[in-house]
Each structure stands twice: as C-alpha cells, then as structure tokens.
C-alpha cells in the first residue's frame, strides 16, 4: 500500500502547498494543512478509486474539506460571495475590447497580475488557481470545492473578468496600444 | 450571444465535440472571439509564470515522506495506528532537517516514481468516449492555434521541452525527435485531455503538413479491459472511421498519439516513439489499443 500511495500521491506535495497557501495566506499554516491532508489521505486510501478520481483532485478535496471545517470551528467562516448561477452570469459577459496576446507582451503585467490575484476573494482565487496552475477541469474543481458546476464557472469567469479589467486599466493608464487579433 | 458563452469553455477545453466544431467554425469568422480565446490563454500562461514557481519547502516533503513510512511500519506491527495523530504532533515541532538529506530524499522519490515498471501484460481498450475526447482536443488545438500552438517560455528543442514540462507536470513527458521520421516540431503546450493535466507536443509532416499530436497525461479515466468485445482483435480496438488514436499506459501516465494517418503509419510511429528514451529509462509498457481511422 505504501509504495502505491507514495507513487500516486507524493508528486502532488508542491501542488497542494500552492493551494494551501492561497487558502491560508500563511506558510506555516499551509505546511500544517498539507501535512494533515496527507495524514487523512493515508487513513482513507483504502477507499480511493483511481479510475473515478485523479490523485490530485482527491487530495485537494480532502484539504479543502478539512480547511473549511477548521475555519468554521474557529468561527472564521469564509465569506460567501454572491454566486450567480452561470446562465445568469453569462449575461454579464462583456463585449469590451479584449487584450490580444498577439499585440501585448503579457510579461509586463506579471507584477500587476500578482497583486490583482491577491486582492481577489479567497473562493475566487482558489478556483482561479485550481484552473490555471493545477489544470483541473470544471468538474474536478466542483468536486474539490464541493459546489455546483455553475458556481465554479461563474467564479472562474468573474475572477478572469476582474483580472482582465485591471490589466486593461493598466494598459490605458500607461497608454499602451492593444488591437484586435487578425 | 451563444458563442460568447461558449468561448470561455472552449478555451478551457470543456466543450463537447460538436460544440467544439461549431465554435471553431465561428472563430474563423469572428476575430473578437478569437482574441478572447487568446486572452484566456495569455492569462493562464501569465498565472503559471507568476505562481508555478511556488514550491513546498524541503522540510515539508521530508515530513510527508516520513509520515508515510511511520504509518506503514506501525500497521505492519499490527497497531491500529492513526497517521493523523502523528501529523498533529509534528505540527508543533520545528523540525530541522539538513537540506542535502531532504534534497536527496526528493531526488530518490522522483527516480522511484518515474522509473517504476508498468503493469506487465496489460491490454486495455480505449472507450469510445475517450477516443472522442482525444480527437476533440487534437482538433481544437490543430484548428484553433495550429502553427502557433506553443506556450511562451517553453524551449523549442525537443529534449529540453520534455524535461521542463516533465519537471513542472510531474510526468514523464514524451517529446521525441521525429525529424528522422519526416515530422517537424510545431510546438508544445500544457493541454491535457478533458481537463486532465498533461503535455501536448504537436508535430507537422514535412511532406503533407498533416498534424500529429503526442499527448502525455496522467492516467485517463474511463479506460478498462473489454474482454470479448466484438471490436477487439488481437488486443486492439478497431473503429470504423475517424482520426486514428493510439494510446498506452506507462506508470502513472498515459501516452496518446492522434492524427489523420493510415493505421500502419501511426502504429509504426507509436512503436518508434515508445522506444524513444523519455525522461526516464524506456519501459516496455504494453500497447493499450489502436483505433483505426476509416
């Protein structure tokens, strides 16, 4: 059991740590959270089904559940944001000028982007990072965060909207040129 | 409006095949939506660049590894050991561990994980749904970004490509040099299949321009043996029509080849690719299935 557990799960320590850091905001708490997650994963490994779940989404779900259980106990319940279901949110999708990768050097936004991500609400930031860094599908994010698929989509799209709007403001403030892709 | 709702899901690889084809057709006519797809991709790449360098400290890797070892030892001794108690005890310690020892532990773990032998003699049939997903992802990348399919910041040389993607994705990424087989490298990106993390290396035939996809993904769900299937022939699944797909498991990853090529050519390429040294010693993973294009 140990070899199989190590083979499947240990490659994901870094990924879990990244998400734990976004959840807790503290390196020490993130390390404790990751360690507790693996302890729980070990205890529950007999029930893990590889074909149903990838190892990383399973670990992230354990971590997410434990973190929010602890948060509620400490009366630091996360702020529940107004999550419109996706069909209603889709009506808000804007028709503004997109930032075109063909005309903008994205690397000049890195510092702005980091700051903007840190300003996002925790639920938005978590979904965004699970999508971008960990490459999880909508369904996997929904299972990790224990929320409906529509909620994942609306949080992700809103987070992306906030970030791209901030970057557009940055572009305008510095009078950078953007244009439509061909 | 319908396409505006679909653009984000398309960029995330979340659409069904028929919606994929609809939006690909739309993107050819709508530069605004095409720019939004590029915007989503640019944002994802930037987020990765900004945050993927965050790594767990060595002491955490060591503590987790030690937790696994303690649990196994205790259970072997017959005790009803709860690893959670050990984890809580450690939380209050500042455990100083030598960086060299911790680094050696991580290196050892990686080589063990990456070079573990695959299950011998496993023949698994790729289910119809997975085939559709593979074809859908291949089509989305080929027709969507085509010759621009390359993540900014990744090297353009094959050995470096596999090594860097493998390091970041914790997979043994297949990125072979196919120039001797008449294929030029187009580029690579972190496109999994249906949201599963993975690497997608794209090649183009020098003779015809036809694109070949080589995917490395963590284990695809939905794979399973179909004993006695009427479409099984000598361990291969034969489909009547469609873009050819060949896939096999090797350790914790699945390799998938996909392209509009005759069966014999794709199978020959698969055999050549499987013999290519990857980021670990080449392993003799059993071929999973060949799906033959019509």
**Uncertain segments of chain A:** 77-87, 178-182
The SSE string of chain A, one letter per element, is: HHHHHHHHH
> What would you call the quaternary organization?
heterodimer
- What's the helix count of chain A? 9
The share of residues in extended strands of chain B comes to 15-25%
**Helical fraction of chain B:** 40-55%
Mean pLDDT of chain B: 68
- Summarize the amount of helix of chain A as a percent range: 55-70%
The total count of strands of chain A amounts to 0
Largest sheet of chain A: none
Structural class of chain A: mainly alpha
Which labels suit this protein?
heterodimer, A: 182 residues, mainly alpha, disordered C terminus, B: 294 residues, alpha+beta, 6-stranded antiparallel beta sheet, two-stranded antiparallel sheet, 8 strands, 16% strand
Describe this structure in words.
With 182 residues, chain A is an all-alpha fold. Chain A has helices at residues 2-9, 13-24, 27-43, 55-73, 86-90, 110-119, 122-132, 138-145, 149-173. In chain A, α4 (55-73) packs parallel to α8. The model of chain B is unreliable at 92-127, 221-240 and 277-294 (pLDDT under 50). The radius of gyration of chain B is 22 Å and the shape is globular. In chain B, α1 packs parallel to α3. Helices cover 44% and strands 16% of the residues of chain B. The two termini of chain B are 36 Å apart. Chains A and B meet through α1, α2, α3, α6 and α7 of A and α1, α3, α4, α5 and α6 of B.
């Amino acid at each position: 059991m140990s070899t199989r557990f190590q083979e499947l799960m240990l490659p994901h320590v870094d990924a879990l740590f990244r998400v734990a850091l976004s959840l807790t905001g503290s390196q020490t708490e993130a390390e404790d959270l990751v360690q507790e997650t693996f302890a729980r994963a070990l205890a529950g490994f007999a029930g893990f089904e590889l074909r149903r779940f990838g190892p990383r989404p399973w670990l992230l779900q354990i971590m997410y559940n434990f973190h929010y259980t602890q948060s509620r106990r400490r009366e630091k319940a996360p702020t529940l944001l107004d999550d419109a279901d996706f069909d209603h949110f889709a009506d808000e999708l804007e028709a503004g000028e997109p930032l075109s990768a063909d005309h903008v050097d994205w690397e000049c936004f890195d510092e702005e982007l980091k700051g903007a991500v840190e300003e996002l609400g925790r639920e938005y930031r978590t979904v965004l990072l699970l999508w971008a860094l960990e490459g999880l599908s909508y369904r996997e994010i929904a299972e990790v965060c224990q929320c409906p698929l529509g909620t994942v989509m609306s949080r992700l799209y809103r987070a992306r909207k906030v970030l791209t709007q901030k970057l557009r403001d940055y572009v305008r403030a510095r009078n950078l040129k953007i244009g439509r892709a061909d | 409006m319908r396409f505006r709702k679909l653009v984000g899901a398309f960029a995330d690889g979340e659409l069904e095949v028929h919606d994929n084809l609809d939006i690909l057709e739309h993107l050819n006519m709508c530069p605004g939506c095409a720019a939004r797809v590029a915007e989503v991709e640019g944002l994802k790449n930037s987020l990765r660049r900004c945050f993927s360098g965050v790594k767990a400290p060595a002491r955490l890797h060591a503590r987790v590894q030690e937790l696994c070892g303690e649990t196994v030892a205790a259970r072997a001794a017959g005790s009803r050991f709860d690893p959670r108690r050990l984890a809580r005890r450690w939380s209050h310690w500042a455990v100083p561990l030598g960086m060299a020892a911790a680094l050696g532990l991580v290196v050892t773990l990686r080589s063990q994980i990456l070079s573990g032998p695959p299950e011998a003699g496993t023949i698994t049939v790729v289910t119809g749904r997975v085939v559709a997903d593979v074809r859908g992802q291949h089509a989305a990348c080929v027709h969507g970004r085509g010759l621009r399919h390359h993540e900014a910041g990744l090297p353009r040389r094959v050995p470096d490509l596999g090594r860097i993607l493998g390091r970041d994705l914790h997979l043994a990424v297949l990125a072979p040099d196919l120039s001797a087989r008449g294929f030029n490298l187009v580029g690579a990106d972190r496109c999994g299949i249906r949201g599963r993390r993975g690497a997608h290396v794209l090649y183009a035939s020098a003779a015809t321009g036809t694109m070949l996809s080589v995917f490395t993904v963590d284990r695809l769900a939905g794979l399973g043996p179909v004993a006695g299937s009427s479409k099984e022939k000598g361990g291969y699944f034969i489909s009547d029509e469609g873009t050819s797909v060949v896939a096999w498991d090797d350790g914790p990853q699945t390799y998938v080849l996909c392209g509009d090529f005759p069966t014999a050519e794709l199978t020959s390429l698969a055999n050549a690719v499987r013999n290519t040294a990857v980021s670990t010693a080449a392993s003799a993973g059993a071929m999973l299935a060949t799906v033959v294009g019509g």
